[in-house]
Structures are given as C-alpha cells and as structure tokens.
Amino acid sequence: AELRFRYATYLGDTSLILAQRLGEWVGHAPALEEDLALANIALDLLGQARYLLSYAGEIEGKGRSEDDLAFLRDPSDFSNLALVEQPNVDFGHTIVRQFLLDAWQLELFEKLQASSEPRFAELAAKALKETRYHYRFSAGWVVRLGDGTEESHNRVQAGLDALWRFTSEMFAPGAADEEAAAAGLGPDPASLRAAWLANVEQVLQTATLKRPADVPFRWFGKRHQHTDHLSHLLAEMQFMQRTYPGAQW
Amino acid sequence: AELRFRYATYLGDTSLILAQRLGEWVGHAPALEEDLALANIALDLLGQARYLLSYAGEIEGKGRSEDDLAFLRDPSDFSNLALVEQPNVDFGHTIVRQFLLDAWQLELFEKLQASSEPRFAELAAKALKETRYHYRFSAGWVVRLGDGTEESHNRVQAGLDALWRFTSEMFAPGAADEEAAAAGLGPDPASLRAAWLANVEQVLQTATLKRPADVPFRWFGKRHQHTDHLSHLLAEMQFMQRTYPGAQW
Amino acid sequence: VTLEQRFQSKVDADERIEPKDWMPDAYRQTLIRQISQHAHSEIVGMLPEGNWITRAPSLRRKAVLIAKVQDEGGHGMYLYSAAETLGISRDELIEQLLAGTAKYSSIFNYPTPTWADVGAIGWLVDGAAIMNQIPICRCSYGPYARAMVRICKEESFHQRQGFEIMMTLARGTAEQKRMAQDALNRWWWPSLMMFGPNDATSKHTAQSMRWKIKRFTNDELRQKFIDITVPQAEYLGLKVPDPDLRWDEQTQHYIHGPIDWKEFEDVLKGNGPCNRERLETRRRAHDEGRWVREAALAYAEKQRARDTQAA
Amino acid sequence: VTLEQRFQSKVDADERIEPKDWMPDAYRQTLIRQISQHAHSEIVGMLPEGNWITRAPSLRRKAVLIAKVQDEGGHGMYLYSAAETLGISRDELIEQLLAGTAKYSSIFNYPTPTWADVGAIGWLVDGAAIMNQIPICRCSYGPYARAMVRICKEESFHQRQGFEIMMTLARGTAEQKRMAQDALNRWWWPSLMMFGPNDATSKHTAQSMRWKIKRFTNDELRQKFIDITVPQAEYLGLKVPDPDLRWDEQTQHYIHGPIDWKEFEDVLKGNGPCNRERLETRRRAHDEGRWVREAALAYAEKQRARDTQAA
C-alpha cells in the first residue's frame, strides 16, 4: 500500500505541478487559440492529478483528501519530476517542457495500462488519449518554432538547452517508479527511454533543432530533490489553504 | 487609542510594503553599488515598520506583535499607500516609486516631529534623517536616468506616467491621517502637497521629465482599497507564518 | 421601396439580417462597435478571475475556474468571428483594443483582491451580463444572435457556479463570511453600472431599439437585475451595501439609492483602479507573443513553398 | 640576487607584498584567479540566501538576512578592489564570470528549498569559509590580506547568526526540527567539499603555500572544520549524515566517511542542481541593468561637458 501511495503521488504530483505552471498562462498566451489550448492541457493534467491524489489518499487510509495532499504538504514531500516545476520563461520554454513531458507520458501511460493495479490501468487508458492530444499540440509547436523564424528557432533551442538536463530523471532508477516496476504496478522507467528518445529525436530533426548533449545530472524531484522554483510555486498555490486551515471552499 | 493604532499601521504598512518590494531587488540590481543602496533603504524602511507596528500592537493591547500584524493580517486589513505595492517592473519604475514616496516622507516626517504623541515624534526624527539619504539616492537617479540616454529617459518617463495616479492618495483626506491631523497626532495630509509638488517638479525639470497630468483616482490603499498586487505580495511574504502558525523563528 | 425601407421592414417582421444582406452603414458600424466591445470584454474579463487560477483554494475550484476563464476566451472567439462577418478582421479589432480606442466593459477594471471576488463576479457580473445578453439572442443580426445563444447558456452556468461559491463562503467560517460581504460591498455598485447610464442620458438606446439590436432600456434591465438579485443576497445572509434600498409594494420593485455616476465616468475615461493594468497586461501578452505568431506564419509559408515544389 | 629571489625572501620573512612591488607573473595570475573567484563567490552567494528575503518568517529575521546578503555584496566589492590592484578591472572580471570562464565556489550551486537552508548556510557554509579565510588574513599580498581581515570579522558574525537560526529550529516544533535536519543532510557533504580535493590530488597547493597565499592544506582545513562542527551538531540535537563518522581517541580527531568526489566534479563542471540558474540570474541582472549603467555614463559625460563649458 505504501508503494502504491508513493507511486500515485509521484505521477499525481507531476501532473499537478505542470497544470499549475500552465495555469499561469491563462489569459496571457501569444494568441487566443493557444490560450485555450494551454488551458485545456492544464485541465486534463489537473484531472489526472485529482484522480491520482484522491486514490493516494484512499490507499493511505488517514483520511487525507486530494486537497490535503495538494495544499498541505511541504515542498520536500512532493515527488514530481523536476522538469515540470521549471518556470514558464517564454512560450518556447513552455512548449519544450510540455513536449518532453508529453513524449514521456505517451510511453508511460501506454505501458501503465497493463498495471496490476486496475486503478492505475484505468487512469492510464484515459490519460493516454489526452496525452496524444497534448503531444500533437506540443510537437506541432516545436516544429513550427524550430523551423519558423530565426528568433523562434533560437528561443526554442534555448529552451531545449535549458531543460534537457531534467530529462535523465524520467528514466533513472531510484524512486517509487523502480519499486513499482518490480511489483508490476508500472513500467520500468528505463524501459521508456528508447521509444521516447527515438520520438523526440525525430521531432527535433524535423524542427531543425539540435539535441543537447546528455550531462550527468543527479538531482531528482522524484527523490524529493527540488529546484528553488517549487517552493515558490507552492507558496502561491497553497496560500489559501495554509491561511484558512480547515475551511471548506 | 484606536486612532493611534490606525495611524501607526497606516505609516507602518507603507514602510513595510515598500521594504518588501525593495527586498525583491537584492542580488538583482543593475550594479553592485545600487544593490547595496536598495538593500540599505529596505533596511531603514523595515526598521520604521517594526517600530510602528510594535507600537500599534502595544496600543491595541491585545498582545499582537509586529510579526502578528505583518504576517497574520489579510490584504484588506492593510492600509499602506497603493503606490508602494506597485511592482518593481524595472529600475526606472522602482526609482520613480521611491522618489515620489521619499519626497512625501520628507514632508511628512518633518512635520510629524511635532506630533503630540512622543512615539510618533521620536520615529519621525530618526526616519527623517534616513529619508534624506533615500531621497538623495532616488532624486539623483531620477535626474541621471531622465537626462541620461534616450532609452533611460523613456523608461523613467514611463514609470512616472504609470505611477503618478497613485500620488493623489498621499494628500487626499478620508482615512486615519485626516483624523490624526484633527487630533494633533500628525500633519494634515493636504498640507504636505505644496512643498512636495514644488520639490518634485524641480527635480523633474532638472531631469528633463514631463510631469503627468493629474487624474481623478479614488482608490486608496489607506482606505483598504488595494490593487491586485498586494495580495500576491502578501501571499509570498506571509507564507511561512501562515503555514506554521504559532512557531517561533 | 428603398433598400433602407426593405431592411427596416425585415427587422420589424423579426426576420434575421444575414452577412450578405444589404444593411445601413450605421447599423453595421453600431454592430461592429457593440460586438467588438463585447468580444474585448470577454478577453479582458479573463484577467480579473484568471488572477485566482494559481491560488484557487481547492483542486475542484481550480478546475472549474480554468474552465470558466477558458469559456470566456471561447466567447471572445465566437464574437470576433461574428464581428468579422461585418467586414472587419480580428487583428484590426485587437489593434483597436490595444491602442485604447475600443472600449470594453468597465467592470473588468476593478481588482480581485480576494477569492470571494471570483464568486461575486460569477454571481453579480455574469448575472448582470446575462440580463443584458438574453435579449440579444433575439437580435436582428443573425450571426450575433446565434453566438449569443451559445454564450448565454454558458454564462448562466457560470452565474450559478459563482452563486455557489458565495453560498459556500456565506455558510463558512467568520473569515469566509467577511470575505463574501466585502466582495458584495465592492461589486454591487459597479454591477449596477454595467447596464449603462440612466435612460434619460443614454444616447444610443432609441436607434438600437428600432434596429432590434437592443430590446430593453438600461433602466429596465437594471431594475430587473436588482429585483432578482436582492432576494439572492438575502438568501445568502449578506447585506446589499445600499442604505436607501427598499421594497416598493406599489410598483412591486426594489427602489435603489443614487448611483455614483461620477465613478462610472471616471472608470470609463480610464481612471478606474485597474484600467492601466488590464491594457498593459493585454499589450504585454500581445508583444511577447509576437515572435510566436511570426514563427507560425513563417512556418506556414515554408510549408506552402515546399508543397508547391513537391507538386 | 634576482628579483624573484628578493620577492621570495620578502615572503619568507612574512613581509607584505604591495601592488607596486615587483612580483612573479605566476604569483600575480594566481592571486587574480583566487581573489576574483572569491569575489564572484560572494556575488553569486547572494542568490541562494537572497531567495528567502521576501519570505523570511519574522521581520527581525528579514532585516538580519537583508543585512547579511548586503554584507556579501560588500565583500564582493572589497575583493574586486583588491583584484584591481593587480591590474585587472572589475568589468573584465565580471565579464569572465558571466561568460562562464571564471569559477566561483560550487557550494552556491545548491538550492535553498526551505528557510532552514538560510540557517545551514550561515552555520556550515560561512563556517567552512571562515576556516578557509582566516589564514588568508596573513596572506603575503597586502590588499588581499587586509580585505580578508574585515571580511572574516563579518563572516564569523554571520556564522553565529546561522547557528542561532538552526538552534531556534532545533528547539522548535517537530516540523521545524525536521526542516533543520533536512538542511543539515543536504549541506553537510557539499560543505566538506568546499575545502577542495584531497591533498593528494590538489594541484595548486604546494606553490601557493610557498608564496604564502595558502597556509594549510585542504585536508587540514577540512579536518579542523569537522572537529569544530560535529560537536555543534550534537549540541543542536541533529544527526550528521555520515554513517561512518566516529571520534578517534588516538588522533583526537573525527574520522569521516568517503566523500563523493564524483558529485564534486559534476558540480564543478556545471552540472550541479543550480549552476545554470545562478549564472542565468546574474546574466539577466547584468543585461537588464545595462541601460541604467549606460544612462549613468551618458549623464556623467553630459555633466563633464557642461562643467567644461561653464569653466
């Protein structure tokens, strides 16, 4: 049960924190169509997070709700991928972050459908459909920006260079996902890499973008080693619940 | 007593919120010298705020400390001038905000030395010395930026255009300061305007800047009518105290 | 019969005017002005509530709020499309907004300092908007009327959500109740002003009614809004901030105190609490998005060139 | 006697070398490298703690923290000045920092996720820095030695403040204690790495000791730090995250477990948790401040021209 809790919060936190970042865009995107699309993705991710955190609360059996888990944990309790807590910076960074994550969720949810735990399998089936849509959007923009103007090419390449180091975490062992794989709850993280990389490389090539070199990067959000951005994000997200403990909204 | 509480929080909140804004600059200013100078001003303002909020807590007699007042009040309880909660934007906006406020504090503290309440008089004498130093810095930069390059001129003029509407609040009646004047606690806000304006106009002229037209603007922070910026600023500032109620730091 | 007469008799017969039909230039201009103002209001209206997306107090409320703000963006899109049928492009309209030459509803120049404002906007602002908009579902101009049918359906959903937020607060802790009352205090009068000036001083009403763009006067709609909303406030246990407000047995209407039209004028002229900020925010989003829009165009052109070469 | 011999005998006699004195070029270059690295460390070091200025949990702590970060900026200024006496300008040095060609202390590439990190940095990082710096107060190069005297005084004040923050947390609520332990867990090993590689692998040590720029080896200083700090951790009731740590009666020293030099190398090469961010932040501040610095120059030139005309 404790493993299922950790695995559910790992996946749930990752969707939640990215939804929070995308929520910052609403009303501020480059055009109305992108505004609506980013809001849509945020809503899907938020839905995944609510499903997973509710389930985590159930398993834990201490009466914690999705809101308790989202709003009353400290940064060091969160186990989201560090990638998703990175700031929006500009539309280029945002799209790269989304693309790298979408491509990973594609592989993850595909395989998670075979989870020995029906609740994970059920989530995966639904989320996979959503992710295909997100991926179409983000990969499409990676290509358009990469093969658009010189400025857009440079900006999206800068986003890629800045964020690439956070991708090793997706496939590295050492957290709930590794144990989950051993228990048949989910795929082995390392097993997702080949398909992910082939997919990403193909899109980057179409986009005329250069894949950054892999670097040794050992600070993993899923092991609760977060960048400075998470505590700021949570301070904003959690403010109401922290300020008015116990209130119903 | 209630009036002294409101007057002390009005002045204290104004110093506190501006100190918080200046604190955002530390480590990020255009050059090392400006970094240190902004930190210095922040420290002086924070000192004023601590003196005034501690005093307000004493008067109130409910055992609230400076920290209780700073960290456990809602935005609508704050009565700082709306000017000081405006975001930093760039160094030009920051300097204009500082200059407009410094020029006002010069007049305010000068007259507040004659307060019938020795605690206000004492604060004013100390703060006046500090303000003279702040004013030298901010007025000096207004002139340098205004009469510097075309870009700096445009930026500081933009700051002035954006912030001028918040200056009417300094001299308008309708809050603790008006009653404080009637009670001999502090100067009549309207009485500060002539000297403030003469001073400001002279500096703007030297800086080759254009004084914006006065507009009717009736939303006053000192009447608890704040812009959207205050609640964001407080969410960040208050996060720790809200999250760990009752802890000592 | 002149074209103008034929047009007017169609309108009189409650037939719809469609984009390809002849219409008087003033009718076209009035519609462009009104539809684009309405579209701009949806877009600018995303900001005051959007301000709370990152801070919504529960995941459910966060999801509902994102969806609502997204709906407003969608309404903006339908309305820009409706305006485009009159021969003006969305880009031109947005330029007017950003240049400050087009108007949007003044209500969105008020700030949202607390979570209760999200509730109050849904309850009061969307409530007032619906009151204004339902008659437009029968507007003489087809594309506008059809867009409005869809919009009204969603708006009334939003209005109920807003009321439900207020109810949760009003039934909540002392702090929540205080928050709700404070929001009502701040939004009540601006909501009444949303219906526009008194009939006596309103300049567009007569012609617009003849054209069936408008079907009720400002004061009629305002009265209707008050009559519906005051009992809702009572149900919530909140106090409407109008000391002169009273029920009039004779007319079976609420009588309200004087509206501060000076405030209305100030905000309309750009001196409201957030006018500068709202436009600034829209301009920044537009400027910072320029390179993205340019990239999309450049890419599309490259694709076209490639297709041509391939063909 | 050659110049070089005269120089070395001065150094050997513990006399100070001053800017106008002859010095070997390698000595000059070593000093420029070391002083500027130190200056850059102060400047970059403002960021991890500065991260908590806006969120400090009491007004007193906020004031103390602002003053501390300001002191670090001040240290940067003295050190840049000391480096300038060796014939290089502050602007050149800052260019090297921003271009990524100059180094700064790797410790500042670690994040500060909680308030306890402010305490841990003061206690451990400033503590280790003092250990490194006190011998430099007797460094052979006069301007560096004098700057260091002033800096060390302030640093030991900071170190005590940091320890006091840790003590308040360690004596506080369960959450505060957890925060303090977590910070110690994260800062312990990086602090040990601050003394640099093992003596066996350190390449600069021998020459620097001959020149009296350095007076103790890395391992000596590291040992001193551990011996002082472990009892402090015990006093706080916190556990040093080293399962191999033990007191050795014979040597009267603590023996520590193996240091992960691979991590040290990774962070040094730019792959620490915040290397990119720290440089990015400094670059952004530099770029966004360019117009301000240009304005100051332009204004100063105009003033000069006016003065000339007036004269």
Features:
heterotetramer, A: 249 residues, mainly alpha, 12 helices, 66% helix, C: 311 residues, two-stranded antiparallel sheet, 13 helices, 2 strands, 2% strand
Summarize the structure.
Chain A is mainly alpha-helical. In chain A, 66% of the residues lie in helices and 0% in strands. Chains in contact: A-B, A-C, A-D, B-C, B-D.
List SSEs of chain A in N-to-C order.
HHHHHHHHHHHH
Q: Structural class of chain C, please?
A: mainly alpha
- Kindly state the number of beta strands of chain C: 2
Secondary structure tally: strands of chain A: 0
Class per helix and strand makeup of chain A: mainly alpha
Overall pLDDT of chain C, averaged?
A: 95
Biggest sheet architecture of chain A: none
SSE order of chain C: HHHHHHHHHHEEHHH
Mean pLDDT of chain A: 97
The main pleated sheet of chain C reads as: 2 strands, antiparallel
Task: Describe what this molecule looks like in 3D.
The complex is a heterotetramer, with 2 copies of chain A (249 residues) and 2 copies of chain C (311 residues). Chain A is an all-alpha fold and 249 residues long. Chain A is built from 12 helices and no strands. The longest helix of chain A is centred in the first third of the chain and has 29 residues, at 32-60. The radius of gyration of chain A is 17 Å and the shape is globular. In chain A, 55% of the residues are buried. The model of chain A has no long low-confidence stretch (mean pLDDT 97). In chain C, a hairpin with a 4-residue loop joins strand 1 and strand 2. In chain C, helix 2 packs antiparallel against helix 4 (59-84), helix 6 runs antiparallel to helix 7 (142-170) and helix 6 runs antiparallel to helix 10 (218-236). Chain C contains 13 helices and 2 strands; from the N terminus they run H-H-H-H-H-H-H-H-H-H-E-E-H-H-H. Chain C has helices spanning 3-12, 25-44, 46-50, 59-84, 90-99, 116-133, 142-170, 174-193, 205-210, 218-236, 261-271, 275-288, 290-310, and strands spanning 246-248, 253-255. Chain C is mainly α and 311 residues long. The A-B interface holds A 232, 235-236, 238-239, 242-243, 245 and B 232, 235-236, 238-239, 242-243, 245.
